[in-house]
Amino acid sequence: MFSFNTFRLIALLEGLSFLLLLGLAMPLKYLYMMPLAVQVIGPIHGLLFMLFCAYLVMIMKRYTLPTMVGVWGFIASLLPFGTLVFDGYIKKRVPDHTLEAE
């Protein structure tokens, strides 16, 4: 289950859930008084955020990446589009991730 490709999928989903939360759910809550979207998307995003952080630590240990890669990954997870940009950044730094089996 644990692989670099799984990490990349979690990063993509976390980034998309963050954009949905900020771009759809929050405006619905505060402009149209419809909090249901935040109640649904918020916990999903929270779970994906925690998974992203946990997998980031595992990826750093598995591929012996420098601490700054983890710092950049965490900062990226706090910014809109951050994990999507971080995906390209970390893909260049992980050796032979294309050869691993799922």
Description:
By secondary structure, the chain is mostly helical. The chain has one domain (4-93). Helix content is 75%, strand content 0%. It has four helices and no strands. Helix 1 (4-32) packs antiparallel against helix 2 (36-62) and helix 1 runs antiparallel to helix 4 (82-91).
What is the topological layout?
Elements: H1 4-32, H2 36-62, H3 67-77, H4 82-91
Helix pairs in contact: 1-2, 1-4, 2-3, 3-4
Q: What string, H for helix and E for strand, traces the elements in order? A: HHHH
Percent of residues in helical segments?
A: over 70%
- Helix and strand content put the structural class at mainly alpha
Q: Count of DSSP helices?
A: 4
The profile of the biggest β sheet is: none
Number of domains: 1
- List low-confidence stretches: none
Strand percentage: under 5%
Instruction: Sum up the overall morphology in one term.
Output: elongated
Distance, first to last CA: 7 Å
Number of DSSP strand runs = 0
Based on CA atoms alone, the radius of gyration comes out at 15 Å
Instruction: Look at the structure and give the mean pLDDT.
Output: 91
